[in-house]
Amino acid sequence: MANVSAQVLEKLPFHLFALLSFLSFIIIFYSWLYTKKNRLPSPRKLPIIGNLHQLGPLPHRSLASLSRKHGDLMLLHLGSKPTLVVSSANAAEEIMKTHDAVFANRPSSQLAYILIYDCRVGKYGEYWRKLKSICVLHMLSNKKVQSFRKIREEEVSIMVKSIQKSPLSVPVNLSDSIKVFVNDVVSRVAFERYCNLNGQCNMTVIRNLLK
Prior knowledge:
extended; two-stranded antiparallel sheet; iron; iron ion binding; mainly alpha
C-alpha cells in the first residue's frame, strides 16, 4: 500500500503538468479563434516593429495601396500600438460623427500626463467638455480670433518677405516656412513673445499655462 501511494505521488507532478498544459492549449486556441473571427483585416506584421516596414518613404501612398487590398477599415500595428486606418468618407463619417463618442477617448499615457499634464490627451467626459466649452467661448470666439488679426498679418508679411529673399536658384521649403509661421503666431498669441522652434522661451510660463 505504501509503495502504491509513493508511485502515485511521484507521478502526480507529471499528470498535473500535463493537465495544466492541456487547459492552457485549449484557452489559447479558443482565444486565437475568437480574435481571428472578430479582428479587422490587417497585413502581416513583423515582431517588435509591426507594420512600420510597410509604410515606406511615402506613407500616404503605402496606406492607399494597403487599403485597396485590405478594405476601408484596416488594422495596422505601428510598433506595439494597434492603429485603425480609415480610408473612405463613409467609414470616416461613421467614426467621427455617428459614433464619435465611442472613439473620442485616447489611450492613457503616464508620460503624456507628466509632460503636458493631460492637456491634449485627456479622457472624454464632463471635464473635457467643460474645457472645450471654455476654449470655444473664451479663446476661439470670432471676436477673440479677430483681435489677433494684426499678429497674423504681420507674420504673413514676415514669411512672404523671407521667401522673396531666398535665392532664385534654391527651392523654397514651404513646409518649414509654414511651420515657423504657425509657431510664431501661436507663441505671440499665447505668450506675447516669440518662442523659437529650439525651445528658447520662458519655460516657467509654459509649465504654468499647461497646469
